[in-house]
């Protein structure tokens, strides 16, 4: 069932991975992935965030966000396993994945849309959550409408249609959360 009332489509699969599968994937990714501190540039000044990131893909795509370029690394064995399962459920192919590792609730993500020009316009984005449950919010760009979700360990959130055009999303901070979370966002990079 589409959870957005208009201007887009989001589908939530809470049991995409079992508890044990999610724990196994999280441990493997913690060890296999080449994590780097996330850096953002705000008003010309570079800031190092608590969050760790990584960028993987079919080719060494260069992806720039927050004015910081990243070159995609080759898929790890665990990422390929999760990617193939995501593609089966979503009935779409993905050629890259941005990973975020949030150490605790002090780390979050402000309002944004995944609509960079290097991504295929309106292509689906599949988001897998591993670790502690976190709140995730959508807000419409022009209408006074918000949708609150709770992303559980092992869940899959599929965003497609005009979602990135008309909606922004956020992972709010919460000082009550002391555990970590890994998020994988499978995307379609424009390699033309």
Question: Which tags fit this structure?
Answer:
13 strands; 3 helices; alpha+beta; seven-stranded antiparallel beta sheet; 17% helix; 192 residues
How would you sum up this structure in a few lines?
The protein is of the alpha+beta class and 192 residues long. The chain has helices at 19-32, 77-90, 163-166, and strands at residues 9-13, 36-42, 45-57, 62-65, 68-71, 96-102, 109-112, 125-131, 134-140, 146-151, 156-160, 167-171, 181-187.
What do these coordinates show?
The structure is a single chain. The chain has 192 residues and is of the alpha+beta class. It is built from three helices and 13 strands. It has helices at 19-32, 77-90, 163-166, and strands at 9-13, 36-42, 45-57, 62-65, 68-71, 96-102, 109-112, 125-131, 134-140, 146-151, 156-160, 167-171, 181-187. The strands form three sheets. It has a seven-stranded antiparallel beta sheet, covered by helices on one side. It has a four-stranded antiparallel beta sheet with strand order 7-12-9-10. The chain has a two-stranded antiparallel ribbon with strand order 4-5. Strand 2 (36-42) and strand 3 form a beta hairpin. The longest helix has 14 residues, at 19-32. It starts with 8 loop residues before the first strand and ends in a 5-residue tail after the last strand.
Outline the secondary-structure elements:
Blueprint: E1 9-13, H1 19-32, E2 36-42, E3 45-57, E4 62-65, E5 68-71, H2 77-90, E6 96-102, E7 109-112, E8 125-131, E9 134-140, E10 146-151, E11 156-160, H3 163-166, E12 167-171, E13 181-187
Antiparallel strand pairs: 1-11, 2-3, 3-6, 4-5, 6-13, 7-12, 8-11, 8-13, 9-10, 9-12
Helix pairs in contact: 1-2
């Amino acid at each position: 069932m589409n959870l957005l009332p208009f201007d887009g489509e989001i589908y939530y699969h809470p049991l995409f991975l079992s508890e044990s599968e999610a724990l196994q994937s999280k441990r493997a990714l913690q060890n296999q992935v080449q994590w780097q501190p996330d850096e953002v540039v705000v008003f010309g000044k570079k800031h190092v965030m608590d969050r760790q990131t990584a960028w993987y893909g079919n080719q060494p795509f260069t992806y720039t966000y927050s004015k910081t370029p990243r070159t995609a690394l080759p898929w790890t064995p665990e990422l390929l396993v999760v990617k193939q399962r995501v593609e089966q459920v979503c009935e779409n192919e993905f050629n890259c994945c941005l990973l975020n590792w949030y150490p605790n609730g002090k780390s979050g993500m402000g309002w944004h849309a995944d609509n960079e020009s290097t991504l295929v316009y309106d292509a689906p984005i599949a988001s897998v959550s591993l670790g502690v449950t976190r709140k995730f919010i959508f807000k419409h760009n022009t209408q006074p409408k918000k949708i609150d979700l709770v992303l559980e360990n092992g869940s899959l959130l599929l965003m497609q249609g005009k979602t990135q055009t008309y909606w922004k999303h956020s992972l709010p901070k919460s000082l009550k959360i002391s555990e970590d979370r890994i998020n994988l966002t499978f995307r379609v990079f424009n390699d033309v």
